[in-house]
Amino acid sequence: MQLNQIGSKNLARLACALAGGMWGIVWIPLRALDNAGIPGAWATSLLHLIPALILLPLVLLRFTKIKAAGIPLQAIGSSLGIAMMLYSTAFLYTDILHAVLLYFLIPIWGALLAKVWLKEPISKNRIIGIVLGLSGMLVILNIDQGFPVPRNIGDWMALAAGMIWAVAANLLRRYPHYQALDITTTWFYWCSGFSVIVAYISHPHVGPETVDAVFNVLIWVLPIAFLVLIPIYFIAAWGTPKLNPGTSGILFMTEISVCTISATLLTNEPFGLREILGVGLITAAGLTEVVIPIITTVFPSRHKRLSRKH
Q1: CB–CB of 257/21 below 8 Å?
Q2: Of 25, 82, 237, 277, which one's alpha carbon is 20 to 30 angstroms from that of 186?
Q3: DSSP state of 38
Q4: Residue 159's domain spans which residues?
Q5: C-alpha R_g of the chain
Q6: Is Transmembrane one of the keywords (predicted)?
Q7: Residue 205 · residue 98 · CB < 8 Å
Q8: From CA 126, how far away is CA 143, in angstroms rounded?
């Protein structure tokens, strides 16, 4: 493998870890919108509609290329969109614990599907990363009665969201030549469409007070959309195609760590030994897919000598 390809992979690993971490603070504007009088499903819609409108000029400029990309690009955008919509909406119908646990089975689905469909092997580092990541998640969420199974519509939505995201990650891996910008725009538009449909079904009667609330929050939602949401989606769209879907799934688990820490700082949630251990395990999971490949790239001869010894 050429050095620039290796560097690109390592950068992609860092990009996915960063995108996951940034996703860990998206709950803050969602909660603020809900507190401002915009119901949960409509809050999700608003956070995707605004970036979609911001990106409209780019869509018009690149419309010919987006159209020429055909069905595969739309399959990627729609699967990413429906996964994000299902995950966001799942929190309305179930508790956070079940939603997060069932969604973040992504590394398992992603690695298995890549093995079957893309014929990509499941490496030792990947297995270790999956075990560490899931262990950290279980520790943070304080699972003392075994792993939860789906019990209601919200649980099934979270589980389906993780599976569909794994499909999307495999599609991105299968068609890596698409521009990240085109993936980002189609992702926002599909997610906006799905979110509006779900919002209308769950809250069909939108009163004047909700419309007024939307205008009142635009002053801070616009910069969040431009400075946070669009970069998150772009970084994820750029990094994911370059990595095995199981690997990207592990790296996106940084969302759990950042969400835990930010919730502690902003909502007085407890952050004790359990949370520290969980965050440490998730960080270690990411390191197996970031640091070890970098070390083996920079010191290949040393890695081979160590491998022979063991």
Answers
A1: yes
A2: 25
A3: -
A4: 3-309
A5: 20
A6: yes
A7: no
A8: 23
Query: Hey, what are 68's tokens?
Result: 């020429």
**Among candidates 174, 173, 178, which has minimal Cα distance to 68?**
178
Structurally, the chain folds into a number of domains equal to: 1
- For 310, the token pair is 């063991």
User: Could you count the other beta carbons within 10 Å of the beta carbon of residue 38?
Assistant: 27
Closest listed residue to residue 234, CA positions, set 29, 16, 44, 7 = 16
DSSP state of 55: T
- Of 5, 175, 13, 153, the closest CA to residue 80 belongs to 175
Is residue 76 within 8 A of residue 172, CB to CB? The reply is yes
For residue 151, give every residue at least 6 positions away whose Cβ sits within 8 Å of its Cβ, in sequence order, or none: 94, 98
Residue 184, classed as helix, strand or coil, is helix
Q: 287: which 2 tokens?
A: 């390191």
Tally Cβ neighbours within 10 Å of residue 174.
15
Residues with Cβ within 8 Å of 97's Cβ and at least 6 positions away in sequence, in order, are 141, 143, 148
Closest CA to 233 of 211, 252, 214: 252
The angle at the Cα of 230, spanning 32 to 163, to the nearest 5 degrees, equals 85
pLDDT along the chain (310 residues), means of 10: 57 91 86 80 88 94 92 96 90 77 88 93 84 82 66 88 96 94 96 91 74 82 90 95 92 86 76 80 77 65 50
**Distances from the Cα of 260 to the Cαs of 33, 154, 264, in angstroms?**
20, 21, 6
Query: What is the pTM (predicted TM-score) of this model?
Result: 0.84
Q: Tell me the residue ranges of DSSP E strands in the chain.
A: none
